[in-house]
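Bump. Still looking for Endoglucanase structure tokens.
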Amino acid sequence: MKWISEAEMGGKQAEASNPRDRGSSIWCLLVLVIGVLVVTAAALTILKYLHFSKNNEAHPINKKYADALELALQFFDVQKSGELVDNRIPWRGDSGLQDGSEENLDLSKGMYDAGDAMKFGFPMAFTATVLSWSILEYGDQMNAVKQLGYAYNSLRWITDYLINSHPSENVLYFQVGDPGLDHKCWERPETMTERRPVTQVNTSFPGTEVAAETAAALASASLVFKENDPDYSSSLLTHARQLFTFADTYRASYSISIPQVQGFYNSTGYGDELLWAASWLYHATRDDSYLRYVTELNGQRFADIEITTWFSWDDKLAGTQVLLSRIIFFGAKDMPTVENLDLQMYRKTAELVMCGLLPDSPTATSRRTDGGLIWITEWNPLQQAVASAFLAVLYSDYMLTSQTETLYCSGNSYKPDDLRNFAISQADYVLGENPMKMSYLVGYGSRYPLYVHHRGSSIPVNADTSCQDGFKWLYSDDPNPNVAVGALVGGPSLNDSYSDTRNNVKQSEPSTYNSALLVGLLSGLISTSSVVKSYT
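Sorry for the wait, here they are.
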């Protein structure tokens, strides 16, 4: 990478008055001073105007992405459990009020992860981590379009739940509901009556990845709330530290400890979550022990240096590489050599990820549709596309803010704008610039999915249905009576086609983690601007 040094400051010194000019009078001097003051005032006025104009030109609000962001944030309101406050979704009501009560816990808050009524802690925590990251980087842009308050509210709705799900240092409740029972019903969450058991990880049945992801969520959120609610922030950080210690001390995958979770959010490993959580804890605390954890202590074992991966609820490596690159961009000057070199390797891998995303790079991934969308899997394909675009706009802004002009990909050079343009291409595809001419964000544009795989959206509010007889609404030929505003559906097939069918789960089911990634992407595209150099 080519690093650009700070611009040298300089300028001509003002010429001194000539003492030999005895013909100068006090009057002339007074006229001269007045003239200088007038010119200076005029210059300052012009500079002020130019500065204002430059800011307006450099930071215009993109209405398309601002409108999309307003919709995307509403999906979190669609997904809320518990006693709703300031409810923005007229067809939603209170639900899950007794969740956790059999263990004397209040797990009524949180969010249903997708189109059913399950609360899965692993993807919910990831949703919170990504939402925190988005606020930390792009909170100013959210605020400029009056959406920051909604983002705060949604984040806290999750973190309140996560705190309550961690009643002691080595116990974490990560699931509410039995997916086997839940999926035998098609009903609104407001009317569900079946038993909703809770499931925990502990020292006898550890779950490193879910505990570590929850630690990442709470550590990142502690930064978000640090200024406005320091007591709450401190509580979040205490829980994050404890959960990380629990995750690291009792290393085991929750998919192995509790095999029944393998059918829903099966984990492929926990090393990435440990690095991800430690990275966020370093940002939240500036405790060097967390930095050593991700570098000299565990980097070689877990980081898969120079191997590119796809950022998702299950794989955090690409996100970790970008997050740790941030330290190199903005704060590695006084760092010990060993840790600095290890961080450089994370950044090198992040660069490989970025080079793979750029469509005309020599190392560009071929895993795209003909329409240009990153496409990795037939199940929920938009997740990796939106996640990749979010990381790309972040890395582009890191480059701009640090005055890093060039990204090198196998001899070819690229600018921050190239990464941003890639991110724009994915966002625009989602919003309707695709072969189907359809927006995959529900409520955006004139054509979007009408048969979303979502119970609450598909069942009329006044319908008198129970667990089993609600399935008639799943198979109904009528569009959903309630619009799941802001839902990002799973997305298109590899051939860019989409079947708008309610029972087409792979393509038509939305999720909170997809929405969190989209919120981050859209917030980054609202305007062109720098990011903060430090979260603290």
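The chain has 19 helices and six strands.

Edit: fixed formatting.
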